[in-house]
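Technical annex B. To support the medicinal chemistry partners, we prepared a structural model of the target in complex with FNR, based solely on the information shown next.
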Amino acid sequence: MKRRYARSHRWRQARSIDELAAMARQRLPAFAWEYVSAGAEDERTLVDNRRAFQRWQWRPRTLVDLSEIDSRATLLGRECAMPLAIAPTGYNGMLWRNADIALARAAWRHEVPFTLSTVSCDSIEAVAAAVPEARLWFQLYPLRDAEATRDLIERARAAGAEALVVTTDAVVLGRREWDSRSYLSPRRLTPGHTLDALLHPRWAAQALWPDGLPTLGNLLKYLPAGQHSAASAASYIGQQMASDLSWDTLAEIRRHWPGKLIVKGILDAEDARRCRRLGADGVVVTNHGGRQLDGSPASLDCLPAIVDAVGRDLEILLDSGIRRGSDIAKALALGAHGVLSGRATLYGLALGGENGATHALGLLHEQLHNTLALLGRPRLAQLDRDCLGPPLHLSRPAIGGTVPSSPAPPVPGDLP
Ligand code: FNR
């Protein structure tokens, strides 16, 4: 019998994040699917983010007492159920009504931190009021308007955010061509995509009814009166991205923010050292999920050098490509303290809101436990480079007829 995944309404039966992704693709109109899943340009970095994990083989040990498997971790000095936080992602309201609150609840239920994006649909005040127990981190895009930036920082403090995550790699947006093909002008869907959206009534009823597309909740305060629509908010943020963002800006933010400061967008060891000198508490090693500079290396490939440079002094988080519990374990074996989940939890969210995101977190957690057991390292502290064999050579698919010099082993579950 042919192998196939269940239909999207059976998302509770999904056994893996790839299965949730396939189901989310069925449920969402193409423009929303492309917004979430697409990478920049030829999507080389997007694909490489997955291949980087597949290149590492495990070296399991046997006859180890597995009666207690412990995946509890400490992130930013506080305990959590596993070494993972939900990554900041903007405009989640395209997938589910009050999506940011749903994600924050899922994170709280699963005892992991949740990061709210500057360009979220639910405001930071709404999220903090709806899920007061959540471990809330706030992601900051520093704006050209310095007063608005300071106000966002102050609002994060007042809402009880324990960490400020300053994103440095999206000052200029990457060219997400598959995403932009859905539109005639930046905010007008092509007729084909409009028709496709109408053909997804279950998505429309959940995400759009009764108020239509949501706006960017955190930014409303800075928009002129009467111009609070999603389009006005998007055009505001487009003009406000601080293209002069620099180390001085970061130092200024450090002076204003008394809590934990994480710098997101680090791929280079010297940049990580500079974050340490500036007084940051941690870095996120990331290429923004392959959505920015296509051709930049997989985050995982950049991790060891950054761990060697600052691993003792800074909390090192990694994202881009986490789709399995074994990916989390590999990142930890290479020295990360934890990971962020971007699309993995968004696919769950798109299918079942809070419950769907919880299902995604549950899958990652179960898979992490299973990996620790099969690897013969029942505790996270036992994960180190000795757990991994030498990386396999996996060549990329040939471009322009180039033939790889040695045949590469097939990669299961490769992205198209
Ligand atoms: C993002 N990401 C992101 N990062 C950020 O700092 N602020 C943001 O507003 C967004 N928005 C956003 C939207 C969507 C739809 C995606 C998929 C991603 C990047 C995100 O935080 C994270 O770095 C990547 O998603 C990690 O890669 P994976 O887990 O999606 O492979």
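Notes passed to the chemistry partners:
Residues 398-416 have pLDDT under 50 and may be disordered.
The chain has one domain: 17-176+239-387.
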